[in-house]
């Protein structure tokens, strides 16, 4: 899913993809990490890089109203 959406973004004239990193998705339990499937942050970033785009990660404990307990 991500490669086609990222390509469409580039084709539409964007030069960057901005996203939050929802840490409670990556660490569902204390010291238990999950970077599999759609949580594979490195694969996501490399896909953006391969399209020649910039990645802007919004890392932090606060994720506005889009996600609970992010």
TrEMBL record:
GO biological process per UniProt: carbohydrate metabolic process
GO MF terms, alphabetically ordered: beta-galactosidase activity
Lineage start: Eukaryota, Viridiplantae, Streptophyta, Embryophyta, Tracheophyta
SUPFAM superfamilies: (Trans)glycosidases
Known EC number: 3.2.1.23
Domain of life the protein comes from: Eukaryota
Organism, as annotated: Escallonia herrerae
Full protein name: beta-galactosidase
Entry-linked InterPro entries: GH (IPR017853), Gly_Hdrlase_35_cat (IPR031330), Glycoside_Hdrlase_35 (IPR001944)
Catalytic activity line of the entry: Hydrolysis of terminal non-reducing beta-D-galactose residues in beta-D-galactosides
Residue ranges occupied by any Glycoside hydrolase 35 catalytic domain in the UniProt entry: 1-70
Family of this protein: Belongs to the glycosyl hydrolase 35 family.
PANTHER family tied to this protein: BETA-GALACTOSIDASE RELATED
């Amino acid at each position: 899913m991500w490669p086609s959406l990222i390509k469409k973004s580039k084709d539409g004239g964007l030069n960057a993809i901005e996203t939050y990193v929802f840490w409670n998705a990556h660490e569902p339990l204390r010291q238990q990490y999950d970077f599999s499937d759609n949580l594979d942050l490195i694969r996501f970033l490399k896909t953006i890089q391969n399209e020649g785009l910039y990645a802007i990660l919004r890392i932090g404990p606060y994720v506005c109203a889009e996600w609970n307990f992010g």
